[in-house]
Amino acid sequence: MAIITTSDLTKVYGRDFVAVDHLNIEIEKGEVFGLLGPNGAGKTTTIKMLTTVLKPSGGTAVIDGHDIIRDSLAVRKVIGVVPQDLTTDEDLKGIENLMMVSRFYNVPEERARETIKELVRLVDLEGAMQRYVRQYSGGMRKRLELIAGLVHSPKVLFLDEPTLGLDVQTRSQMWKHIEEVRENLGVTIILTSHYLEEVDALSDRVAIIDHGKIIASGTPAELKASLRGDVITITVSSENDVEKMLEYRGATEVKDLGGNRVRLKVQSADREMASLMNYIVSSGISVTGINVQKPSLDQVFLEYTGREMKDEEPGDFRSMMMRMRRLRR
Length: 329
Fold this sequence. Notes:
GO terms for molecular function: ATP binding; ATP hydrolysis activity. It is a peripheral membrane protein. Belongs to the ABC transporter superfamily. Drug exporter-1 (DrugE1) (TC 3.A.1.105) family. There is one protein chain. This protein has two domains: 2-224 and 309-328, P-loop containing nucleotide triphosphate hydrolases (Rossmann fold), CATH 3.40.50; 228-294, Alpha-Beta Plaits (2-Layer Sandwich). The protein has twelve helices and 15 strands. It has helices spanning 43-50, 72-78, 94-104, 109-122, 138-148, 168-185, 196-202, 220-225, 239-245, 269-283, 297-305, 316-328, and strands at 2-13, 17-23, 26-28, 32-36, 58-63, 66-67, 79-82, 156-160, 188-192, 205-210, 213-218, 230-236, 253-258, 261-266, 287-293. The strands form three sheets. A six-stranded mixed beta sheet has the order 7-8-9-4-10-11, sandwiched between helices. Strands 1, 2, 3, 5 and 6 form a five-stranded antiparallel beta sheet that branches. Strands 13-14-12-15 form a four-stranded antiparallel beta sheet. A hairpin with a 2-residue loop joins strand 13 and strand 14. The radius of gyration is 23 Å and the shape is elongated. The two termini are 31 Å apart.
């Protein structure tokens, strides 16, 4: 059952700049939905419209039965936003921050404390609530931010860059907490991240947006399977060697990447490697490097957009959340 449905959702700036172009997506209740896109693709504009911060130029969306245009206040009550920037007050204790957020949403104090107690247990922060936030580690701050977006018991959580700046070990712990939140609370999560392995690990489904349109969608496994094979990148010594590599017939696709690098797309690198090595030796090609990549979301993203994921402008989600809080008052 879909909890979010967009119907020709469109945003046009000025006379002719189409940021989001007749977007139609359905997000199922209780799933983690990864939304990816390069800078300027329309991802942030889409989220701003879904969170009622930005009014569409055309079309609409329905979240938990509420239209984002006609019932914007009702929408704000059922969604939570956790931005990539840290928004909790360092000069307040953990519990004081959470109680302050609960008051933004007019949650009765007794219910707020009960909800906070459960959330704190989920993310292992029981012993930190009476400590000032400035004493928290980076991972603790991120966990506090996560549950700050849940104190009013939203049905949909917009989660932007949840592990930005964390080390690998702390990041994996944060993944576990996000999964526990989804499992225990049944909340639907819209996830955006520049760590594509994070989106792969957490998302039930992923959509890639570019030029305001969804250009690919499916489960992570389906998207990776769409690449139809592995990628072998070979670095050679000369342009003459590049020309020889471009004549290799065992690949489904051969491309000159420049810089004496050639990319081969093959059905299976494991099966193809012996034939490839024989060709290199028999052709007298001087190879300085070989890199084999199995299908990944990074490759999927590059394949469909022609670009690599780059950092978004900082502070965008923070300003969005602060505006939402003002609108709720």
